[in-house]
TrEMBL record:
Subcellular location: Periplasm
Claim: Signal is one of the keywords in the record: yes
Residue ranges annotated for the Heparinase II/III-like C-terminal domain, each copy included: 397-599
Alphabetical keyword list: Lyase, Periplasm, Signal
Xref: InterPro entries: Chondroitin_lyas, Hepar_II_III_C, Hepar_II_III_N
Coiled-coil region list: none
Organism: Paenibacillus segetis
Protein's name according to its UniProt entry: Heparinase II/III-like protein
Domain Heparin-sulfate lyase N-terminal intervals: 75-315
Length: 651
């Protein structure tokens, strides 16, 4: 491609390269500072780069281990029956380590490896002019030109080639011509297909795709379309803000991992604005700031986010804090994550983003300042996102706190949701106790179906039926209304209430309350039964579980859990699995309580976390008229109504 035909004015490739270099960051200064002050990061980066140099990568489907993907990579090869393997290979995220290693060591082998791979990709993945007129469905299929990969490459990895190599002799005029020709073709396609794929701007894919268009326009303002691309992308990112960031705080998909990703993407847009001297609207900045709080709310006291929906139990809240700091010059969210995750892990995760900082020295010094400071959290312990239909209730902001996330959203917002109406995730005394299972994989297989299914979540089923039909990994049957309709702090207890109609004509209400900061009470009320089986599932992060005469007891070296129920039902211990990252799962235990009922059934569950060898004793008694009593350091009375649960205790 003759790149001069792409430019506003006919300038030479040499002049274009000179212009580009004037816009690049002072990478030599950055790398020198990082080399002198962050030796652990340097060592980790070089070790990762060595793996990538050998063609070894960890990708979806590889079972959490590195696998040889070719040298150069086999860009068109789909392995392990997993589309994500090919897609993520073609995002070139391994280039980041190679390029950073080059800047840190000045060893040409790392930079030349990236250049060689880039040129090989351009040759292997041919982009024809007529592709822009392909059916829109083509850009959702499994190949390197899926729209999302077009966006990720052009905002995240290919610009790093410019930053780390653009000043060097490795990045020649001939390489620039190949680079710009390939990027131009990709963004031209993206500019057309992305707004058709995401007309409502209500998905994280559209946000990344807009970032790809914006980044290209900023690095290459000489392009004929640059101004239009910049205007389009800024407007698209503003639309994403309005469509995706909720007034209560929390990205619209309701998945904490994707929310934290969005804090990176929305924050990166602000960093680009700072660097290239433009601004987003006041409303955008206000919503970004407000939504950073959800990164803290959805963080378990044990330091990993709740993996509800397509989420992993990971430390990505740190990334939200990093980009809150880089965009807003505010350490609040990083400081709060440090309280729960710990300074060492926070420093380790945050340091991975140091290259994005416009002022590396200040970033490093401010990070180190966290060592000597404890951030007092002034945020409420009862959180209700009315749009996401999530309630997050906790006893405090320390690692030993009791905390649960409760969710009930139907119809779903998109297919990153799981079949988990009125499911919850519970942490106490430094231990994850009842857990959302996480993603495990995106493959079209039985693992995906299992991890998304209702009986892998801590919720109630009728006749062992999912709340709605699972058709495929990203397709469900119709869904009826389901919602959290009340969340209240009532003094000694904080409560959330929900219902759903997906078993119509049967209706299920669930009330869940944190009581006296030491136990959880759950009341399930199901109406319209005609000799139907009810199954209540609890997915425990324990392998040592036994059924005792009055309770189910789960034990662990950290903390234990006793589960008491009324009425007494058949109890089964079933195998479970919990996944914190792709393709890796650990053993767990699912508990199933089940019975057969007609008319209206009211079922009570009391969760008591404790430490030590002596299990608590709780005897739940029915005292009539949907009223129940039990003793635990005093007498509690539970009154279950049609759409409420009230708790009393002696004054």
């Amino acid at each position: 491609m003759n790149i001069q035909t792409l430019l506003k004015e006919p300038i030479s490739t040499g002049q274009l390269l000179t212009n580009l270099r004037s816009r690049l960051e002072p990478m030599a200064i950055k790398s020198a500072y990082i080399s002198n002050h962050m030796p652990e990061l340097v060592a980790e980066t070089i070790a990762n780069a060595e793996q990538a140099y050998k063609g070894m990568m960890e990708l979806p489907g590889t079972g959490g281990k590195c696998e040889f993907v070719g040298n150069p990579p086999c860009w068109l090869e789909r392995r392990h029956d997993d589309n994500e393997f090919l897609w993520q290979l073609n995002r070139m995220t391994h280039w980041q380590d190679l390029l950073e290693a080059y800047s840190l060591t000045q060893d040409d082998k790392y930079g030349r490896k990236v250049i060689d791979e880039m040129l090989n990709w351009v040759e292997t993945v041919e982009i024809h002019d007529d592709m822009i007129d392909y059916p829109i469905s083509y850009f959702e299929e499994c190949h390197p030109l899926r729209a999302l990969e077009l966006g990720i490459r052009t905002y995240k990895t290919w610009p790093l080639v410019l930053e780390h190599l653009g000043h060097t002799e490795l990045f020649t005029e001939a390489v620039l011509e190949q680079y710009l020709g390939a990027v131009y073709k990709q963004v031209k396609i993206l500019r057309k297909v992305s707004p058709i794929l995401w007309p409502k701007a209500d998905h994280n894919h559209f946000l990344m795709e807009c970032l790809g268009v914006l980044t290209t326009a900023l690095y290459f303002p000489e392009l004929q379309e640059a101004e239009e691309w910049k205007t389009y992308a800024m407007d698209g990112i503003e639309r994403c803000c309005r469509a995706q960031l909720t007034e209560d705080g929390g990205q619209i998909e309701g998945c904490p991992s994707y929310h934290n990703g969005c804090m990176f993407w929305f924050g990166l847009a602000v960093i680009l604005a700072k660097r290239f001297h433009f601004q987003f609207s006041d409303k955008y900045m206000e919503m970004f700031r407000k939504n950073l709080d959800y990164s803290i709310y959805s963080l378990r006291p044990t330091g990993k986010c709740v993996p509800v929906g397509d989420s992993h139990a990971n430390h990505l809240a740190i990334m939200g804090g990093v980009y809150g700091y880089l965009a807003l010059d505010d350490l609040t969210w990083l400081g709060l994550t440090t309280n729960l995750i710990g300074i060492q892990e926070t420093m380790h995760e945050a340091s991975k983003h140091v290259w994005r900082a416009l002022d590396v020295q200040r970033f490093y010094e401010d990070l180190n300042a966290l060592h000597s400071k404890h951030y007092e959290c002034d945020k409420l312990t009862t959180f209700w996102n009315r749009e996401l239909h999530q309630a997050i209730i906790r006893s405090g902001w320390d690692a030993e706190a009791l905390s649960f996330l409760f969710t009930c959203r139907s119809p779903i917002q998109n297919f990153h949701a799981h079949i988990d109406l009125m499911s919850f995730d519970f942490t106490a005394l430094g231990k994850n106790m009842i857990c959302d299972p996480g993603i495990f994989c995106y493959r079209e297989d039985e693992d995906r179906k299992q991890f998304k299914g209702a009986n892998y979540h801590s919720t109630l089923l009728i006749d062992e039926r999912d709340h709605f039909e699972y058709i495929s990994s990203f397709q469900y049957g119709p869904q009826k209304i389901g919602a959290i309709y009340n969340v209240e702090d009532r003094g000694f207890y904080q409560m959330a209430s929900a219902y759903h109609m997906n078993y119509e004509p049967m209706v299920h209400h669930r009330h869940i309350a944190l009581v006296d900061k030491e136990l959880v009470v759950i009341a399930d009320r199901v109406e319209g039964l005609e000799r139907n089986g009810i199954q209540r599932y609890f997915h425990l992060d324990y392998t040592e579980v036994e059924v005792a005469s009055q309770a189910v007891i789960a034990t662990n070296d950290t903390a234990n859990l006793a589960i008491f129920t009324y009425p007494q039902e058949e109890v089964d211990l079933l195998p479970g699995r919990l996944s914190d990252e792709n393709d890796i799962a650990r053993a767990a235990t699912r508990i199933r309580f089940q019975g057969t009922y007609s008319g209206t059934a009211t079922l009570l569950t009391v969760l008591v976390p404790y430490k030590g060898g002596q299990a608590p004793a709780v005897n739940i008694q029915d005292v009539g008229d949907c009223c129940y009593e039990f003793n635990y350091g005093g007498c509690y009375r539970i009154v279950v109504k049609d759409n409420d649960m009230e708790i009393y205790k002696p004054v």
